[in-house]
Specification:
- This protein is 45% helix and 5% strand.
- It has 23 helices and twelve strands.
- Helix 4 crosses helix 7 and helix 11 packs across helix 12.
- The chain starts with 10 loop residues before the first helix and ends in a 31-residue tail after the last helix.
């Protein structure tokens, strides 16, 4: 029997089956999610991953809600020590990576964080470590203290399921500690591990190869090439079949296919090197007695280790493509606003840059479009680079995206502050000692002008004198200090990380649409005619600033009373505050105890969706 308490997962949640087309891709996907929670007893593994050994029956058969509940209960029970095992070494490695972030999150009286913070930790861990965007943990997804937000597909319910189990471990102490966050991450690692295993088994079966028999190097190369095609193409089975049947199309369909294959072969060579340094590992990994590191053969576990390394390091390999794309956008942003006129974006797409072709509506859905300036619509560089349309790999459980250039900035601030809030002077001193990218080759000292300094003061005044560093307004301030590196933070629920084939509309602009926009280039602020005469301020580059606040973590427990909470008229907002969504607008009347004359032009539509 399970060592977990009963009724961890509500019957309502289990029975609320997904209804849209993405959710109903196939029953195999549902089965895969269940399999992902099957944290079986351990086998030999590297310290970088939580590797398991399969038991008894397969979960890839049909799975109904009751079976799904049972498997989750058993799986999480094993992960938490009820028959399974997670090495302390691996947990400590994760906790060490989380520590700087964890220290800056607000805690309750028991020293624990809320579920918003738990999700934030998991998201940041994978995003910083491997540029992975885990489904269900997206910052754009609404979440409150009582809800993880609606999930369109079953894999996006992972946070809620795992949280319900973790929460049950300490019912009397609301919230989660850093070890809970590590368990959350281990569970997601396991989901990814099992997804890789399932796909790899499909490739073996396609080539009539047994997972019990080792492969020669040539055989492993064929398997890895097929794996890359399936992995990169996702659910497009028709496209996969076409590419594998006519392999010459691979060179036409994938940019740098030869480099992709070389990258996979490099991971195999890394495994070979590890074997040469550790012959005992080589004998074990061959899966049979008498293995020799000088006569390479590769077990299924070896192949799995290679594809696991591909998942973890692929973003680093592909980063050169992201850098090239960002460089193209920066050349269209001579004033350093972090924005490119939509006309220039499409003009470049027509002339030379095949990447810049997303439709206007799709850019809006992704949160990459600024429509607030009187000069016209603009593409926000960091939001576009981070958009799902530029994630090179999209699976049911995660996306592999471009690196977030704001992560190092945020990490430096967290390490220096070490607390949930900071004084304005402390933040200004810290940020002014950083450098900002003027181009991909050059950096310059950060300049925080009087307007931005005053705006940071205004944020602090709204929160009782100090700035909460895990808040939407502070992240917005960072965006305007580092406009090419830090994305503009939209309020959760107003934009979405939607892959092109998941978007319910035309995700590619037509040639006529692109031509119509590009014909307006002479009227845009960054056009050649205006560059020499216009100052940065004249571009209304901060017109997108929104006064809507949203606390990304549970600051309520700190007990700081902000000035805007001091009057009776704000009682209506308390319900939102308890959920972590604190909305306000400083342009409202002075009864709220804040400035009536806001420092910057503010658009009245907070978000455009």
């Amino acid at each position: 029997g399970s060592c977990l308490p009963d009724n961890l997962i509500s019957e309502t949640e289990l029975n609320s089956r997904p209804t849209n087309s993405v959710a109903m891709q196939s029953r195999a996907n549902v089965a895969l999610v269940a399999l992902a929670f099957a944290l079986y007893s351990p086998c030999e593994a590297s310290s970088e991953s939580f590797v398991v050994e399969k038991k008894g029956g397969s979960l890839r058969a049909s799975v109904d809600a009751n079976a799904f509940e049972a498997e989750i209960r058993n799986a999480m029970g094993e992960a938490l020590g009820c028959g399974g095992h997670v090495t302390d070494e691996h947990l400590k490695t994760i906790q060490a990576a989380l520590e700087p972030m964890y220290q800056t999150l607000p805690k309750n009286t028991k020293g624990r964080v809320d579920r918003r913070s738990l999700r934030h930790l998991a998201h940041r861990y994978f995003n910083q470590k491997s540029s992975l965007l885990i489904r269900g943990f997206e910052p754009s997804r609404p979440v409150s203290e009582s809800s993880w937000g609606a999930a369109e597909i079953l894999s996006q319910r992972v946070p809620g399921y795992v949280e319900s189990v973790l929460e049950s471990r300490h019912v009397q102490e609301r919230g989660f500690d850093i070890r809970d966050a590590a368990f959350m991450i281990v569970t997601v690692e396991q989901l990814i591990f099992d997804a890789e295993s399932s796909l790899l088994e499909q490739i073996y079966n396609r080539h009539s190869k047994s997972v019990q028999r080792p492969l020669a190097e040539a055989g492993l190369k064929v398997v890895l090439e097929d794996y890359l095609v399936h992995w990169l193409m996702g659910d497009d089975q028709e496209g996969i079949n076409l590419l594998l049947e006519t392999r010459s199309l691979l060179w036409e369909s994938f940019p740098h296919w030869g480099k992709l294959v070389s990258f996979a072969e490099g991971e195999v060579k890394a495994l070979q090197y590890q074997r040469q340094q550790t012959p005992e590992l080589a004998r074990h990994s061959h899966g049979h007695a008498g293995g020799n590191a000088l006569k390479p053969q590769y077990s299924f576990d070896d192949a799995h280790a290679v594809v696991g390394d591909i998942t973890k390091s692929f973003a680093s390999f592909w980063e050169s493509e992201c850098i090239e794309m960002k460089e193209s956008l920066i050349t269209m942003d001579p004033h350093g606003t972090g924005r490119v006129p939509l006309s220039k974006f499409y003009g470049t797409g027509l002339d030379s840059e095949w990447r810049f072709g997303e439709s206007e509506s799709y850019l809006r859905e992704l949160g990459a479009l600024d429509e607030t300036s009187s000069w016209g619509k603009q593409v926000i560089i960091p939001n576009y680079i981070q958009a799902a349309s530029n994630c090179i790999v999209t699976t049911s459980h995660y996306m592999v995206c471009c690196a977030n250039d704001c992560n190092p900035i945020i990490s430096d601030i967290e390490k220096a502050i070490g607390a949930p809030t900071a004084e304005v002077s402390q933040l200004l001193s810290l940020v002014r000692n950083m450098t900002s990218m003027t181009s991909l080759e050059d950096e310059s000292q950060v300049t925080v002008d009087a307007t931005l300094s005053a705006q940071l003061e205004s944020i602090a005044n709204s929160h009782g004198g100090e700035v909460p560093i895990h808040s939407r307004l502070f992240m917005q301030w960072l965006h305007y200090v580092f406009p090419r590196d830090c994305p503009f933070p939209h309020k959760s629920g107003t934009v979405a990380s939607v892959a092109p084939l998941e978007y319910k509309g035309n995700y590619v602009a037509t040639v006529d649409e692109m031509k119509a926009h590009s014909s307006q280039v002479s009227q845009e602020p960054n056009s050649t005619d205006l560059n020499a005469t216009m100052a940065k301020e004249e571009l209304q580059w901060m017109s997108q600033w929104s006064e809507e606040e949203e606390l990304l973590a549970g600051y309520e427990a700190l007990g700081k009373s902000s000035s805007w909470l001091s009057c009776a008229s704000c009682i209506l907002f308390l319900g939102a505050c308890l959920l972590g969504f604190v909305g306000f607008n400083r342009k409202m009347d002075g009864k709220m105890g804040v400035k009536a004359d806001f420092l910057l032009p503010t658009h009245q539509k907070a978000h455009f969706v």
